[in-house]
Specification:
The protein has 226 residues and is an alpha+beta fold. The chain has 9 helices and 4 strands. The protein has a 4-stranded mixed sheet. α2 (15-32) runs antiparallel to α5 (92-111). The protein is globular. InterPro entries: DinB/YfiT-like, Maleyloyr_isom, MDMPI_metal-binding. Pfam families: MDMPI_N.
Length: 226
């Protein structure tokens, strides 16, 4: 019999691109309606970066994927800083335009990459949450893309042999199984909402998040970006 966990283990090649498209349709209009000074706001999840820096990083990464440019050292901290610096003289509107194109065009490339770039799509969706939070907008790490993001997160953690966790989420009817122990340790347990789970798995602050329960595992063990 097929279980919900088994379904999550089957890669849907369209899922990463779908996640990006859903977020594009929500984020881009929001950005076009913000004042110029809002782009200079600091982003708590990315110390030293402003909203504009995060957007420039995302737009550069997605454009690189869409154009198939994967030179040595790509996506390293040094490369990310160079990408941002190269856009220093761009208007905010131009950065947003590039981001919109990247979120539209990168999905097809990610779909054909046999899973190698799926984590990048999830990371860009998380960065969109970072921006939402910095701008004081609702829906950070949630919204219409959350089901795809959770399914993608669960599959990636299992593929990478991450610490096992069973999550009972307010946002899903069925429990979500993350990570894989190989029988070496019993799974931890999370009870709470999906956005808070995303925060824990991506090292984002959980202060101010709805109440949750975490047992059998330390929060620092969950961070997939360590």
């Amino acid at each position: 019999m097929t279980t919900p966990a088994d379904v999550h283990d089957v890669r849907d090649p369209e899922q990463p691109g779908r996640l990006l498209s859903i977020e594009r349709d929500a984020l881009i209009p929001l950005l076009r309606g913000r004042a110029e000074e809002d782009f200079a706001r600091p982003v708590a999840a990315c110390p030293g970066w402003t909203v504009r820096d995060v957007l420039a990083h995302c737009s550069a990464a997605l454009t690189r994927v869409a154009e198939g440019r994967f030179e040595e050292g790509v996506f390293s901290p040094e490369a990310n800083d160079r990408d941002i610096a190269e856009r220093d003289d761009w208007t905010n509107a131009r950065v947003v335009d590039e981001l919109e194109r990247g979120m539209t065009e990168a999905g097809a490339v990610i779909a054909g990459a046999e899973g190698k770039l799926d984590g990048l799509a999830l990371g860009e969706w998380v960065h969109a949450g970072d921006v939402r939070e910095a701008l004081g907008e609702p829906g950070a790490y949630g919204g219409a893309g959350l089901p795809d993001a959770l399914a993608l997160l669960a599959r990636l953690t299992r593929e990478r042999g991450h610490v096992p966790l069973h999550a009972d989420l307010d946002d899903l009817d069925e429990p979500l199984r993350l990570g894989e122990s190989g029988g070496e340790r019993p799974p931890g347990r999370f009870i709470g909402d999906g956005p808070t789970l995303v925060r824990l798995y991506t090292g984002r602050p959980v202060g101010g998040a709805p109440a949750f329960e975490l047992a059998g595992v330390e929060a620092k063990e969950l961070n997939i970006f360590r």
